[in-house]
Automatic annotation (TrEMBL):
GO function terms (MF aspect): penicillin binding; peptidoglycan L,D-transpeptidase activity; serine-type D-Ala-D-Ala carboxypeptidase activity; transferase activity
Pathway: Cell wall biogenesis; peptidoglycan biosynthesis
Domain Penicillin-binding protein dimerisation: 157-319
UniProt entry tagged with the keyword Transferase: yes
Protein name, as recorded: serine-type D-Ala-D-Ala carboxypeptidase
Amino acid sequence: MKKLALVSSLLLMSVLFLAGCTDEPSPEERFAAYTKLWNKQDFTKMYEYLSPETKKEISADEFAKRYEKIYKGIEVDRLKVDYKQPKEEKKHKDGEKVNLAYTVDLSTMAGAVSSEHQATLVKEGEGDEENWYIKWNESYIFPQLKAGEKISVQTYPAVRGEIVDRNERGLAMNGTVSEVGIVPEKMTSETETVKKVAGMLNMSTDELNGKLKQSWVKPGYFVPIKKMSSDNTAALEKLLAIPGVSVNNTEARIYPYKEATAHLIGYVGEASAEDLEKLQGKGYTASDVIGKRGLEEVLEGRLKGKPGGKIYIKTEAGEEKVIAEKPAEEGETITLTIDAELQKDIFEQYKNEVGSATALEPKTGETLALVSSPSFDPNKYILGITKEEQKALEEDSRKPLLNRFSSTFAPGSTIKALTAAIALKNGVDPNEAISIQGKTWAKSTWKDHSITRVSDPGVAIDMEKALIYSDNIYFAQKALGLGKEKFTSGLKAFGFDEPLNYDYPIKASSIGKIDSEGRLADAGYGQAQVQMSTLHLAMTYSAFLNEGNIVKPTLLTGDKKEKEIWKKNAITAEQANTITKMLTQVVEHPKGSGHGINDLGIKFAAKTGTAEIKASKNSDGTENGWFVAMDTENPELLMAWMVEDVKGRGGSHVVIDHMKPVLKKYLK
């Protein structure tokens, strides 16, 4: 009996199990599976859940493409279809039709779109084929959408933020330029018009014909050829006299200070495929312009702004049903600490010399100028630089595309003020004089190395005289006396081998490899492998006016204008004052290397420098000239300039001659 009861129980359980396996899914289960596919945007599989009646109205291909086209057009980057399936199966009054509530949340180009819906499921089929299917229509996409209606999109581009100087002078502005174009049907002679226009716009006839033969061009259309500055009225008038030529005004980025600020500000251009890949997920499209170099690139995120848009349905009656709308947000207007007129004056004083310059407000650290010479006109990239113009820039031996103020160079004798400061910090007596005979000196243990100075003053040299006469031998001996560890740690206290925490990428100054006594001696007077930027050099000299503290340089203005310290106590206040007094003698002493600015009648501290640039020890290289100058009684301006290739032209005095008019204009 027990065996029979057990068998009966097992049979009953098997029947129940098989009955459960063949039960049809509930409408809730079916719709939960459908929404899961929807969240994955698997529209092809979603179609399988539609009712037979719905499938008569729309094909699988049409269904999938409808969703894909709409979601792509409104730029959906987040989709959440939310259906809360009940834990327990409900009993429905109508066994053939069920309504289930769900919500759809989208993130689109016009902002967030959220909508509530009712899905209708119907029971279709017979026997084993019976199941629940979705009775779909266009309102499942958007509640406002009806059959036959289309979703339209209107974009609101963001206005790019502008860049201005400390006095609100424009450095990168949104302005208007003239766009020269041709209306094909108005040309009396196509060959003649193309030839004349190409010549006046510095283009090839092939390039111009290529624009006229674009697939979209029709006889009555205006075909844009090239942009020109609206100030070029004479050329525009000549172009307008040619049959078929027309000129429209169009918005464009303008750089009023042209070459003077090109390396600092940069320029914008159309986003390339590479740019779009790098900026993926940040809302950029192929029609956007982005910063290509300089602050336009560095500050791209703040300047770009946020585009807006509108998603709407236009009915047959011509009415608009707005689904979502978001206004564009303008980019930020960014104010720099730069004085644009000072920047321009420095650039113009370079007079096509090759080099770089930095100007700081020494007490606050505000950057007043960052100059690289030679340069280029960034407006040409906006108006459409030709291949020939670009090639000329790239092949120019003076390298006008190279940003020199962000690069580093051997500082020459300008480092001697730092060597002197490090010596004081390590207990060297500045009044202790050394006697050196002649212009050349070498340690007895050196075989093929020696130190040469410019001249033999014929007197014993203490620290002040060494700075006045810029004596290489004195500072070489001081570096050797300090030893590698103390000397390099002293340089690191001034910020060498450390990235600059700055609003523009500047290469860090470096000590290089000091693996011999000869290199240590050379480093003491700015040779060997020591490298500095003009910005960092100016920063280190700020310590002499700030009680031994190096100010943190700023480039962007903010709510606070209080000075920040980058390096506290690089040297003591007493040591800083001692060096400053010595540097004033570089200017005031008749034999001082910076005496050329003494007649301005301003209390200056300054230091010259000449750095040899050689490919090898025995090669005949060139020289770079340096000059650092700062007013000391009421410090307003600290400048560090470097000019390349001054050998045989007066060395560092070339730099003094170029800097002097700027010092006179801004401090006199």
